[in-house]
Amino acid sequence: MSAVEVHNLRKEFHRSTLRLRRGGRRTTALDEISFEIARGECIAVLGRNGSGKSTLVRILSTLILPDGGAARVFGNDVVADAPAVRRLVNRVSVEASFFKKMSPVENLSYAARFYGLGIRETRQRIPEILDRVGFPRSRRDSRMEQLSRGTQQKVALARALLTSPVLLLLDEPTTGLDPRSKLEVQDFIRDIREAHDTTILLCTHDMREAEILAERIGILERGRLLHLAPAGELLERFAASSVEEVFLASTGRSFEDEDEDENQNQNEAAVEVTT
Amino acid sequence: MTRATLAVRHELIGLLGVVERNTYLVKRYAIWELTWFVWTVANTLTIVFIAKGVEAAGGSLDVKRETTVLLIGAVIWSYLGILFEILTQTVGWERWEGTIEYTFMAPLSRAVHLLGMGAFAVVYGLIRTALLFGVIASFFSLQLSRADFWSAFAVLAIASISFLGVGVMTAVFPLISPEKGTQLGFIAQGMLLVVSGVYYSVSVLPGWMQALAKISPATYALRGIRHALLDGAGVGALWGDIWPLLVIGAVSIPLGFAVFRRGEIYAKRHGMLKRSG
Fold first, then answer.
1. Which side of chain B, N or C, has fewer Cβ within a 10 Å radius?
2. Which of B17, B29, B99 lies at the smallest CB-CB distance from A97?
């Protein structure tokens, strides 16, 4: 059984505009994508902002309902068997997302309860896990808002690991981190895989990160999964010397194009409002 | 341990987690809690002084009794406010902190999640309400010589079940309207109390409002608590107010969960279950 099976997965969002009579704009976030992830495998999905990466992660974590197709985690359908999926999955996203006035230990403690971990269990495991992610002991009772982004992200990793997920969804976990924190997080992701046989879906902007952490790399563009193959195979297929070149050749655009795209979208929206 | 026992244990631990988190938040925001309490005291005083004001203006009324009537109304208003606010925070505060996705993807049933919020709201609300009652009572001479506090407490506890059902329904507003949903919770609180005789008898209301009063749990809560505190009515004598509360609670709790469930499905379909909504 594959860890993740995705078949013809489709999701659209409606963006309402002032032109109500015409029903607003439809945005296709995922356009009939299909792929599988083997147990213990790590795949990286590369894509620009708005390419559908976060929608894919949210569907797999049961936070968004798909419009069509199917997604299964260890055989459990993400819609029909959502409670079973939730027991298997955890996630680290680009924003650390904690109660900012609470300490790391308090945040981890209540989050662990949601996964059925009792007081005695967390009293032992939280310090162990914080040590493993290299979180300084002296800061454990500090408020989250007093910690740097890199340190907050370590707590986010600890939160995910605390619940022993068999599928870990990493949605740009190193975006915005300084180089040292980025390396520490990447090392930790490698450790998790080696120690726990965890299956990982990594969505990232960072091509180098994708190359060093994942067995296969997927390229998601405007909701369509253009490729999913080992980095070496992609380089060969496109006669490229780097994953960045592969991305450029397969999408016709580089990551730098996204600012122009976003400006264009904003201009389109402004035109819709004024017409 | 059987699978069913294990599942129940997980849910109970999850419920404990909800209460634990809210306790941390109260502790971390202790100064703000105190500030809010002072505001509530001031706000309640503005209502309760009305009886003395009417007398000073030449009106004829039993000041002690009317002051007690107003105090009970103001205290119930405050209690209901706490319940509704905490329940709407189920979504609103989590969205603001950015934790909403982590909570909603956790393997904790929504019913237990909401019950955890409700349990915390009731305990926290009862403590604050008792403190508020005590502080305000020290300002006035009240008619409490025959008061049966245990019966009043029992009515409030039973009414809390119905209030939770309505509160869970209002908790759905921030889920489907991130910008204005929380305010809709306050509107529901006001609508509930205005038809329930919060500072006056229901009999002074227009006919259509009196009809609404019959299905509002606050009507029976206010009447029962006033009867217990002013006239010393025991639980047996209050049965006429208790059974409607039990019936409304039996309907409003499952209805509240069903409404929230529909709201959650809507939010998941439209991608609104995230930080920015």
1. N
2. B99
- Cβ neighbour number for residue A145 with a 10 Å cutoff: 11
Edge to edge, what strands does the sheet with A25-37 contain?
A25-37, A4-15, A68-73, A76-77
Number of structural domains in chain A = 1
Alpha carbons A19 and A84: distance in angstroms, whole number: 41
pLDDT of residue A232 exceeding 80 = yes
A56 within domain boundaries: yes
How is the beta sheet containing A199-204 ordered, strand by strand?
A89-92, A167-171, A199-204, A42-46, A216-221, A224-229
What Cα–Cα distance (Å) separates residue A129 from each residue in A104, A161, B77?
12, 8, 45
- Whether A111 and B97 lie within 8 Å, measured CB to CB: no
Q: Is residue B275 part of a domain?
A: no
Prediction pTM value: 0.87
Tell me which chain A residue has its CA closest to the CA of residue B27.
Answer: A102
A-to-B residue pairs, Cβ atoms closer than 8 angstroms: 99
Tokens of B175: 């889920």
Q: Which domain holds residue A269?
A: 4-95+166-274
Longest C-alpha distance within chain B, in Å?
A: 72
Residue A152 lies in a domain: no
Query: For the residues A45-73, what does the mean pLDDT come to?
Result: 95
In a domain, B262, yes or no: yes
Whether B276 maps to a domain, the answer reads no
Q: Say if CB A111 and CB A162 are below 8 A apart.
A: yes
Q: Please indicate, yes or no, if residue B274 is contained in any of the structural domains.
A: no
Residue A146 lies in a domain: no
Structural domain that includes position B101? 3-269
Dihedral sign, CA of B28, B31, B37, B39? Answer: negative
Partners of A101 on chain B (C-beta within 8 Å) are 25, 28-29
Q: Is residue A57 part of a domain?
A: yes
Distance CA A246, CA A252 (A): 10
CATH number at A18 reads 3.40.50.300
C-alpha distances in Å from residue A204, one per residue of A46, A48, A152, B52: 5, 9, 18, 68
Q: Kindly give the interhelix angle for B63-89 and B30-48, rounded to the nearest 10 degrees.
A: 150
- In tens, the pLDDT along B52-61 reads 999 899 888 8
Into how many domains does chain B fold? 1
Q: What is the largest CA-CA distance in chain A?
A: 62
Contact between residue A116 and residue B10 where contact means Cβ atoms under 8 Å apart: yes
Q: Give the residue from B113, B104, B152, B144 showing the smallest Cα distance to B17.
A: B113
User: Given A58, A106, A117, which is nearest B13 (Cβ)?
Assistant: A117
